[in-house]
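dumping this here so i dont lose it
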């Protein structure tokens, strides 16, 4: 059973149990890592000693400054936990792990549920949780849970949650920058989160080679029919001694082009294979486009993988985008 509000059932689960496994999603970003850590630090303050945070994939370099980021492990311990908390995701699949040994599953998230029946069946097995799709970040939901549990929010927790909100609102710029997310951020700053310190860690911290790679990729910028795109090839990775992890937010650049509706980043990940990141400025639902190629995501941000030469891949996706823009 999940709700959009903090339920007493959920709060009692935290109060009455003693061992907790906290799990974020694959390819974690600031909301996943920050929210998991904030929940772990909060539960510690509640007197819980047996807390384990896991992420299948590594903590990104620019998030290692987060308090207690070193506690994150990459494999679930074999023993059983009283409660397993999925944070910033709402299916076991999204965690990248097979399944967890527990009798009580909790979800703290803000994503729309997957449409399939499997998701529904899983949700029925969930003991309690909050899925608030109006929340800007899972961090906002974690903040609500911690304050409902009367856990004092101090600097470390505030830093983790502020980072979560900062990332998911794109630095307080996206449409989820609501009075609710700003109010929460305001309270976090009052509690000791330091915006400029966090901003420097997140946004002013690109490795030198990563910026060189961006230069090469930006040089491929083109636009047509309301679409702007850039490409990063395996050649470019080799030339700059970088990996695909160095182009996390490259798709943000073609999105900045004036007059563009859809931005695409083509990242080569094999001789004839490309991973696509699609972004919409609001009019086009890029999730539908991504799904039609076997991918997924949100209406404004999604991704997929397409096999073929760069020209073939581009032609295929441009046709789909053109149709989507036309349909409206
Ligand atoms: Mn999130």
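and the seq i came up w/
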């Amino acid at each position: 059973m999940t709700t959009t509000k903090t339920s007493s059932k959920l709060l009692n689960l935290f109060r009455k149990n003693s061992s907790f496994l906290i799990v974020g999603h694959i390819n974690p970003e600031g909301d996943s890592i920050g929210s998991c850590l904030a929940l772990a630090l909060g539960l510690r303050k509640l007197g819980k000693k047996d807390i384990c945070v896991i992420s299948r994939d590594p903590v990104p370099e620019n998030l290692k400054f987060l308090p207690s980021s070193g506690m994150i492990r990459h494999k679930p311990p074999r023993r059983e936990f009283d409660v397993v908390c999925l944070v910033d995701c709402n299916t076991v699949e999204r965690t990248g792990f097979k399944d967890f040994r527990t009798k009580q599953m909790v979800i703290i998230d803000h994503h729309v549920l997957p449409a399939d029946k499997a998701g529904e069946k899983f949700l029925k097995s969930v003991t309690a949780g909050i899925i608030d799709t109006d929340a800007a970040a899972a961090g906002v939901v974690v903040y609500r849970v911690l304050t409902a549990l009367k856990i004092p929010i101090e600097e470390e927790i505030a830093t983790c949650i502020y980072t979560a909100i900062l990332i998911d609102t794109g630095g307080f710029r996206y449409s989820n920058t609501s009075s609710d997310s700003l109010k929460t951020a305001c309270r976090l700053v009052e509690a000791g989160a330091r915006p400029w310190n966090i901003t420097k860690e997140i946004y002013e911290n690109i490795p030198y080679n990563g910026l060189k790679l961006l230069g090469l990729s930006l040089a491929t910028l083109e636009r047509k029919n309301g679409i702007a795109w850039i490409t990063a090839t395996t050649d470019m990775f080799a030339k700059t001694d970088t990996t695909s992890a160095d182009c996390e937010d490259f798709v943000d650049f073609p999105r900045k082009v004036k007059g563009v509706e859809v931005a695409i980043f083509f990242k080569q990940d094999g001789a004839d294979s490309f991973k696509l990141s699609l972004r919409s400025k609001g009019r086009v639902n890029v999730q539908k486009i991504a799904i039609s190629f076997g991918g997924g995501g949100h209406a404004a941000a999604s991704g997929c993988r397409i096999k073929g030469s760069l020209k073939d891949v581009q032609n295929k996706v441009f046709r789909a985008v053109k149709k989507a823009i036309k349909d409206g």
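The chain has 13 helices and twelve strands.
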